[in-house]
Amino acid sequence: MNRLVRVSSELNSQEPGDHVSARASDAVKTLRTITKASRDELESIQAENKAKKVAFSAGLLASGSQQFGPFDTRKTLVYQKIFTNTGNAYDPNTGTFTAPVNGVYCFRFYAHAHPFNQMAVSLHKNNQLQCSVFVLKPETNANGSNGVVLSLQKGDEVCTQLWENSWVFDDENSYTSFSGFLLFSL
């Protein structure tokens, strides 16, 4: 670095019309190469840092209260009350998180059951079951939660699904929710 500063000051101290030596010419080429490499590296770091900002948290209902289910088949839960969606990787129209970069991500989900209703919710990665919560007809209100750390490739999809013949409940207190964030990129 000191050499570059020296060469730069030598070049700046020359009078107009001075002949630039081959050595100084080589130094200028070196400076240009280092400057371009530094600029490229800075742009890469900035792009990586921007991509690293991935986090979402959402409740099932934006307002009101509702019991969901039962359905004859599994249904993806679409969380509409967005607390945060940094990076816009969670789609509130489909209930699906799509990984914007290769990385290791952490996901948590919570589900609420009313008395005497089966509650079963699973987290899926690319339609493959990863983990679940289940309560079989509780005598009082019941809650379940689970979470997982997953290695995802860019474009992998994560969602939660309500099992067939199951119910979940939510209201303005957001008892049923889904969250995730990037731990680190790969």
Shape, per Cα inertia axes? elongated
How far apart are the termini?
31 Å
Number of strands: 13
- Give the DSSP E fraction (strand runs of 2 or more residues): 35-45%
Report on the biggest sheet: 6 strands, antiparallel
| Radius of gyration based on Cα positions | 27 Å
Q: Spell out the helices and strands N to C.
A: HHEEEEEEEEEEEEE
Number of helices: 2
How confident is the prediction overall: mean pLDDT? Answer: 87
User: Which class of secondary structure composition applies to the elements?
Assistant: alpha+beta
Low-confidence stretches: none
Domain C1q: 49-186
Main location: secreted
Organism: Sinocyclocheilus grahami (Dianchi golden-line fish)
InterPro entries: C1q_dom (IPR001073), Cerebellin_Synaptic_Org (IPR050822), Tumour_necrosis_fac-like_dom (IPR008983)
In short:
InterPro entries: C1q_dom, Cerebellin_Synaptic_Org, Tumour_necrosis_fac-like_dom. The protein contains two helices and 13 strands, in the order ααβββββββββββββ.
Structure description:
Residues 49-186 form the C1q domain. The mean pLDDT is 87. By secondary structure, the protein is α+β, with helices and mostly antiparallel strands. The protein has a single domain (54-185), classed as Jelly Rolls. 25% of the residues are buried. The chain has 2 helices and 13 strands, in the order H-H-E-E-E-E-E-E-E-E-E-E-E-E-E. The strands form 3 sheets. Strands 3, 5, 6, 8, 9 and 11 form a 6-stranded antiparallel beta sheet that branches. A 5-stranded antiparallel beta sheet has the order 4-1-13-7-10, with no helix packed on it. The protein has a two-stranded antiparallel ribbon with strand order 2-12. The chain is 23% helix and 41% strand.
